[in-house]
């Protein structure tokens, strides 16, 4: 792997794109200081130019190369959770390229917790801008083969680090305004962040229809991953309480439609679905395989995917959020 890391870092230095594993999902990396590489990245993903990308670094010492300031609250969160599935939004340093920030005055930064990602960052010795390695609006990849299938030869190098351990994208905390805000829930929970901050999030940090705390940061920061329809399979997906889900399966059968079903815990002995997937009851195991299972269901050629509403516990918030978005109409 160490030779492969050198090759991948060389590709990045030449302005090419490299896909690499992180503990959350696979990232599609580009040199964050190279405008041509960033242009290539946005083009390949099909991502609108005003959507900012997260810059990944290897150490806390590199933060002030990218951020104008590293306030104590940010440092406290970084020390507690990095390397790990947390992205901090800070005021950007003056020379950060506008493509990285989507033209905003903030930057998203993260130290990922994956040996391959960290080895690549150490070898590259600078920041790697990396959105999830999928086309815009689609499911994030949690295996190297997902990336290869989606981009074929269009990525210079795909580093294979096996299945992602967390399986859902990082929690995003905006610290660029007067009050901290969670822009995207993840597997580092609101309560864990509040414990470090020593205070609770202010409203509107309540779960909204979309499942997130708030779609806008304190200073109007946009986090386009919080668009209503995102993280979506191709097959239409609906999230329903268990009883409604059973009725919907019956109605689909009568209408001659094939549905694939995913539930938490319960699976009847007989059913009329083309496939029935039961997710594990604990949120960590569930998050780890959610996208993989959705991809499998998406490949069945069903007319619809029906998913049971996840449990209401705070530990399931990120799962509820992604499923709600997967089911939202664009
Ligand atoms: O776990 C993750 O965060 C993965 C891995 C590869 O690190 N990355 C990821 O990137 O999910 P992406 O581009 O798919 O989602 C990044 C999210 C987007 O919603 C984007 O709008 C938001 O982060 N974001 C990035 N920079 C931002 C900024 N300066 N202000 C507000 N939101 C920002
Ligand atoms: Mg993404």
Describe the overall structure.
- The chain is of the alpha/beta class.
- Helices cover 32% and strands 16% of the residues.
- It is built from 11 helices and 13 strands.
- It has a 9-stranded mixed sheet with strand order 7-1-2-6-3-5-4-8-9, sandwiched between helices. It has a 4-stranded parallel sheet with strand order 10-13-11-12, sandwiched between helices.
- β8 and β9 (181-184) form a beta hairpin.
- α1 (2-13) packs across α6.
- The longest helix has 16 residues, at 283-298.
- The chain is globular, with a radius of gyration of 20 Å.
- Residues 204-221 have low confidence and may be disordered.
- Bound molecules: threonylcarbamoyladenylate and magnesium ion.
- Threonylcarbamoyladenylate (TXA) binds at residues 22, 24-25, 27, 51-54, 85, 87, 89, 101, 104, 106-108, 110, 112, 130-132, 169-170, 172, 183-184, 221, 223-225.
Q: What are the salient characteristics of this protein?
A:
32% helix; 4-stranded parallel sheet; binds magnesium ion; 13 strands; alpha/beta; binds threonylcarbamoyladenylate; globular; 330 residues; 9-stranded mixed sheet
């Amino acid at each position: 792997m160490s030779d492969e890391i050198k090759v991948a870092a060389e590709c990045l230095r030449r302005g090419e794109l490299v896909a690499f594993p992180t503990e959350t999902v696979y990232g599609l990396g580009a040199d964050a200081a190279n405008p041509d590489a960033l242009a290539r990245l946005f083009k390949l993903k099909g991502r609108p130019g005003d959507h900012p990308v997260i810059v990944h670094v290897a150490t806390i010492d590199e933060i002030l190369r990218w951020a104008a300031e590293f306030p104590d609250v940010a440092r406290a969160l970084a020390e507690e959770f990095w390397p790990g599935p947390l992205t901090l939004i800070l005021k950007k340093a003056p020379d950060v390229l506008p493509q990285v920030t989507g033209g905003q005055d903030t930057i998203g930064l993260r130290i990922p917790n994956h040996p391959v990602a960290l080895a690549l960052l150490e070898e590259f010795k600078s920041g790697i801008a990396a959105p999830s390695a999928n086309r815009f609006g689609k499911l994030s990849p949690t295996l190297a083969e997902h990336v290869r299938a989606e981009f074929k030869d269009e990525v210079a190098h795909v580093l294979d680090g096996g299945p992602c351990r967390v399986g859902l994208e990082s929690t995003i905390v905006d610290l660029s305004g007067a009050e901290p805000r969670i822009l995207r829930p993840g597997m580092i929970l609101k309560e864990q962040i509040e414990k470090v901050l020593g205070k609770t999030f202010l409203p509107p940090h309540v779960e909204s229809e979309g499942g997130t705390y708030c779609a806008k940061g304190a200073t109007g920061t946009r986090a386009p991953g919080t668009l209503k329809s995102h993280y979506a399979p191709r097959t239409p997906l609906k999230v329903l309480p268990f009883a409604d889900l059973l009725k919907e399966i019956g109605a689909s059968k009568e209408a001659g439609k094939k549905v694939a079903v995913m539930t938490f815990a319960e699976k009847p002995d007989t059913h009329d679905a083309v496939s029935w997937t039961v997710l594990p009851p604990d949120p960590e195991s569930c998050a780890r395989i959610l996208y993989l299972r959705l991809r499998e269901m998406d490949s069945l050629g069903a007319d619809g995917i029906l998913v049971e509403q996840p449990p209401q516990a705070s530990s399931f918030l990120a799962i509820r959020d992604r499923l709600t978005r997967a089911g939202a109409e664009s």
